[in-house]
Specification:
Shape: globular
Distance between the termini: 18 Å
Oligomer: single chain
Largest sheet: 2 strands, antiparallel
Structural class: mainly alpha
Order of helices and strands: HHHHHHHHHHHHHEE
Strand order of the largest sheet: 1-2
Length: 322
C-alpha cells in the first residue's frame, strides 16, 4: 500500500524532479566550463584519453561471457581483470599531464567528489518541496526552496558526502569479497549471488540513511542530530524501506543495462548515456519519495500524495483532491 503511495507521490511531483535535473545540469555545465576555461589544454587531453576507453564494448563482451552456455569462470575473471587494468592504464596516461601519477589519482577523486557534491545540493530543496506538498497538498516553486536553502543544502551535502563515501567503501569491499569467494567456485550461480548481494548491500546502505534527509528538512537543519534521530526512527520501518529500495535498485540496474545494450547495438551511444542518466535520476527520486512516505508512516502523521485543489462554489468552498 505504501509502495503505491510512494509511486503516486513521485508521479504527482514529477515537475520537481525535472526542475531539479535542470538545475543540476546547469551547475555541472558551469563547473565543467569553468574548469575547461582555466585548464583547457589539460582538460582537452583528458577528454581525448577518456574517448579512447571503449568500456561499452568490454562490458558487452563480459555480458556475453557470463550468459554463454559454456560458462568459464576463468575467462570471466580474466575479462574483469582486463577491464580494471584498462581503466588503471588509462589513468596512468594522465601522468604526463600532471606532476605525478599520484596527483592524477587525486585530481580524478577530486573531480568525482565535486560531481557528487553538485548532484546532492538539490536534495534539500527536493526534500523541502516534498515535505510541503505532503503536509499541505500544495507547494511553492522548487527554485524558491533552492535559492532560500542553498546554505543549508551545501552543509548537508558535505556531511552526506563524507559519510556516504565511508559506507560506499564498505559496500564495495563487501562486493569484492563476494566476487573472490563465489565466482570461481559457483560459476554462473556465483555471478547471480554476487549481483544479488550487491543489490542487497547497496539497498541496506541506502536504507540506513533513509530518514536522515527527511529528519534534517523537518527538524532544524542540524546534520548530526538529524542523522542520529533518523537512524533511530528508520529501525521501526527498516524492512519496509529496504525491500522497496531493493526493488527500485533492481529495476534501475536492469533498465540501465538494457538501455546500454539497446543503444550500443544501434550505434547511438550518446542517447543511451542520456537515457541511462534519466533512468538513474528518476529511480533515486522515487527512493526519496519512498523515504518520505515511510518517514511519515513511522510518526503516524497524515499526508497528501495528490495535489489539493480549492474549487470556489456559490455559497461555500469545497475541496477536491485530484
Amino acid at each position: 500500500m505504501t509502495f503505491k503511495k510512494s509511486l503516486r507521490l513521485a508521479r504527482n511531483t514529477t515537475g520537481t524532479a525535472i526542475r531539479s535535473v535542470i538545475v543540476q545540469m546547469l551547475v555541472i555545465a558551469f563547473v565543467i566550463a569553468l574548469v575547461a576555461l582555466i585548464v583547457y589544454p589539460t582538460f582537452s587531453s583528458v577528454l581525448d584519453i577518456i574517448r579512447k576507453i571503449d568500456l561499452s564494448t568490454e562490458f558487452i563482451e563480459l555480458y556475453n561471457l557470463i550468459t554463454n552456455t559454456s560458462f568459464d569462470s576463468v575467462e570471466v575473471a580474466n575479462k574483469i581483470t582486463y577491464i580494471i587494468n584498462l581503466v588503471a592504464n588509462s589513468i596512468k596516461n594522465f601522468e604526463g599531464l600532471f606532476v605525478s601519477i599520484y596527483l592524477s589519482y587525486f585530481v580524478l577523486v577530486l573531480a568525482f567528489v565535486v560531481y557528487r557534491f553538485v548532484l546532492s545540493i538539490v536534495d534539500l530543496p527536493i526534500a523541502s518541496t516534498l515535505l510541503e506538498f505532503m503536509q499541505t497538498g500544495n507547494n511553492r516553486p522548487f527554485m524558491w526552496f533552492f535559492v532560500k536553502k542553498i546554505g543549508y543544502a551545501c552543509k548537508f551535502s558535505i556531511c552526506q558526502l563524507l559519510l556516504s563515501f565511508i559506507l560506499d567503501i564498505f559496500t564495495f569491499c563487501g562486493i569484492i569479497a563476494m566476487y573472490f569467494a563465489f565466482l570461481t567456485v559457483f560459476r554462473v550461480v556465483g555471478i547471480i549471488l554476487i549481483i544479488l548481494f550487491g543489490i542487497l548491500a547497496y539497498s541496506v546502505r541506502l536504507t540506513i540513511l533513509a530518514f536522515w534527509l527527511p529528519e534534517y528538512a523537518t527538524n532544524g537543519y542540524k546534520a548530526l542530530p538529524a542523522l542520529k534521530d533518523g537512524i533511530k526512527k528508520v529501525v521501526d520501518r527498516f524492512g519496509h524501506v529496504l525491500y522497496k529500495t531493493a526493488i527500485i535498485i533492481t529495476c534501475w540496474i536492469a533498465l540501465s543495462f538494457l538501455t546500454v545494450l539497446l543503444f550500443d547495438t544501434i550505434k547511438v551511444g550518446v542517447i543511451g548515456v542520456v537515457v541511462t542518466l534519466i533512468i538513474s535520476y528518476y529511480s533515486f527520486y522515487i527512493i526519496k519519495c519512498i523515504n518520505f512516505i515511510e518517514f511519515f508512516e513511522q510518526s503516524h502523521s497524515k499526508y497528501f500524495t495528490k495535489k489539493l485543489h480549492l474549487t470556489p462554489q456559490t455559497e461555500t468552498d469545497s475541496i477536491s483532491i485530484e
